[in-house]
Amino acid sequence: MSKKLLEHIVNPIDLRKLDVSQLPLLAKELRDFIIDIVSVKEGHLGASLGVVELTIALHYVFDTPNDLLVWDVGHQAYGHKILTERRKKFDTNRQLGGISGFPRRSESMYDTFGVGHSSTSISAALGMAIASQLKGENKHHIAVIGDASIASGIAFEGLNHAGVTDANLLIILNDNAIGIDPSVGALKNYLTAVKDGKNPKQNNIIKSLNIDYSGPIDGHDIDGLITELERLKKVKGPKFLHIVTTKGKGLQQAEDDQVKYHAPGKFDAATGELIKSSTENLPPKFQDVFGLTLVELAKNNPKIIGITPAMPSGSSMKFMMDAFPKRAIDVGIAEQHAVTLSAGMATQGMVVFCNIYSTFLQRAYDQVIHDVALQNLPVIFCLDRAGLVGEDGATHHGVFDLAYLRCIPNMIIYAPKDEIELQNILYTASLGLKNPIAIRYPRGRGKNADWKFPTDFQKIEIGKSKKLKKGKKVAILSTGTIADNVTAALSGIEDPEHHFAHYHFGFVKPLDEKKLHKICDKFSTIITVEDGVTTGGFGSAVLEFSAKNDYVNEIFLNGVPDYFIEHGTVDELQQFCNIDIDGLRSLFSGLLEEEEEDED
What we know:
alpha/beta
């Protein structure tokens, strides 16, 4: 079908020139366009397909960008980007140098607020609405939030505040009963009851907060959406529209398997079938090593509990949930609650594995300090997606954890270099520690294609480093899986005199100070390498140790520089940070040449 409508729309001004009767055809063209691009370029699919009609209706009814539209999280904002001057470059989505996969203020005036972590839209839009009031402006402010995101604490805080204002705020609940995994909790059950007509109107939770409520209405009925949005434009004060949608709408496979088609990878645009790549003889994913190990440990220890804030599939906590449904808990998008819930369980002698993506633990920082570390409760934090994560970009890179955790008293921090070390530190933690521990590991697969499960577990001695390569002149200290890049870089250098030694510091805290003393005494030059920020990270810890003990070694820090890293493949981003194999090899070779010149 010729895309006669979409190809002539550059921005919402063009959209508003269409007759309402043309919008269903535009919706089909927009869906087809998203499917065609994402099937080849990859990205988030189901969420954007589910809000095509809503996206068109919002830009048709409201005077964007003068009226301010805030998308929560941003997984569902592809249609918004295409209709707001980015259609011709949408095929660069999530690629290095291309447009972001999420709304971003620096990218477009139509992106009123940068998002990536959930549940911020209500607070942001309310802030805009109050500011408009103070400035005497007559603007509309719209927040679009999902049923999984609205269960988060900050969303409730925003609702609680909105209800005591007269701000011109419209909150649209996109209710599809799923985030990335199916929504959970009492609020989800309440919303289901409302949709089913089983909940008495006098018990409406939104009305109880003094917010005008309407709905639920069909989120795929574009005429009905436009009629209701036009009505709500005339209603004063905070308003709440409850719409019901289907995630993946318009692609049958995406509707049938909403978890898999949230971000499906490459697929056939015509049939919807996934393009499968063989995983035979590939190393395991780190998340699966975590999930399978946890199940094995839980078989022999009834006190083991697994907790995840809304990421059971992505973290592989699903294995534990299937094997021990009463001992594995998905608390929804509630990282603060997940951490303090874990702390409460730890006070009662439970062995709690709290599995949170590194970037999302930032949302529960006070709880980590106040509720866990201050009380020295041995919660086991398993930080998935640590380091550079690739195409999700700056909002999702797990590069700050070493820096923000290292300063917390009582905290143990460990970064395994491979799959074996990951399973062994999980085993070690399960035996009982006197302190909380954070175990960080990356997104994606390891390097050991021969990894089998289960294997014999080995206890790891807390605070000990490992020598991976002997050397005489330069000591390279790495932490975590970036050791693979160091090893590969060294293997490509002719070093017959064995200038370079390589040490793996799995424990960033406590540091192996006994080994560090030996290293600082022996080597005049020390290089640190980490898949995290150098400001406050592992390299900083080594510098602090050196200064404290009056060493005068040359110390070079290598890692993520002091600014936000954009989106791209992990390889591209490591290259940008000069911690890829070639970048490290160039660094090592340069130092080797300097050493040889000094000897001459």
